[in-house]
Design a protein that fits this description.
alpha+beta; Arc Repressor Mutant, subunit A; Chorismate lyase; six-stranded antiparallel sheet; 8 helices; globular; Bact_HTH_transcr_reg; HTH gntR-type domain-containing protein; transcription; transcription regulation
Length: 247
């Protein structure tokens, strides 16, 4: 099972199958980061990324002070994985006249899975940027983006409500020498809570498309964000065949 070249997705797939097949029971403790790293002969960062994938997909849940426990609720969620070789452009392409606004940019305690994904204790400080995109009088996009707090001094633009080219991830890469090697997008349909419903100006409980994005440089998370799109907003994704493009 151990291999120096094994990737974090292979490790995640291994434990996902064990959890789905009930060989690891719902609620049972998963091996620690250190134990996984030792068993698979990988770096602790690789082991941590594997557990984060399981957490993002609903197959693991953090237990304060104890690591992770298996979580399998097939009637609540099912994961369908699509692997794309290539680079996804950052953000969306807006129409002329669309208005992109940064609503807040601050250092604040991490909430929800943010601390877990960033690799810090829940409630530890992180950089949170919130924004929206308006088309006329309608809000067509809301977003939350978390960044590691240590980037505040290196990229002071993270704490401003301005959004200018080349974008904050590009600034982070230029300031730190880190480079995004994996961008993971997870899409799910949910029902609007009160706060988002008020932001979109629609009734609470309407369906919403949520995209969770994690950008990773192979050593740690650069950005963890969630973007919400209301009904009647189409998120169109185009794929270009690299071989055909080269010709």
């Amino acid at each position: 099972m151990a291999s120096e070249s094994v990737g974090y997705l292979a490790i995640a797939d291994h434990y996902r199958r064990l959890i789905a097949d009930r060989q690891i029971a719902d609620g049972q403790r998963l091996p620690s980061v250190r134990k996984i790293a030792d068993q698979w002969h990988v770096a602790t960062k690789t082991a941590q990324r594997a557990l984060q994938v399981l957490r993002m997909e609903g197959f693991a849940s953090p237990v304060t002070g104890l690591g992770y426990a298996a979580s399998f609720r097939p009637h609540e969620s099912a994961v369908l994985r699509v692997k794309v070789n290539g680079t996804r452009q950052r953000g969306e392409q807006y129409a002329e006249g669309d208005e992109a606004l940064i609503l807040s940019a601050e250092v604040t305690p991490t909430t929800g899975p943010a601390g877990d994904v960033l690799g810090v204790e829940p409630g530890s400080p992180g950089i949170l940027r919130t924004g929206m995109v308006k088309r006329g009088d309608k809000v067509i996009r809301m977003s939350h983006s978390w960044f590691p707090v240590e980037l505040a001094d290196l990229v002071p633009e993270l704490l401003t409500v301005e959004s200018t080219a080349p974008g904050n991830v590009a600034r982070i890469e230029a300031a730190t020498g880190r480079h995004t090697v994996v961008t993971a997008d997870h899409f799910t349909v949910d029902l609007l809570g009160l706060q988002l419903a008020q932001s979109f100006g629609v009734p609470q409980g309407e369906p919403i498309l949520a995209r969770t994005t994690v950008r990773h440089d192979g050593l740690g998370v650069i950005e963890y964000g969630t973007t919400w799109f209301p009904r009647h907003v189409v998120l169109a994704v185009e794929y270009t065949d690299a071989a055909d493009h080269a010709n």
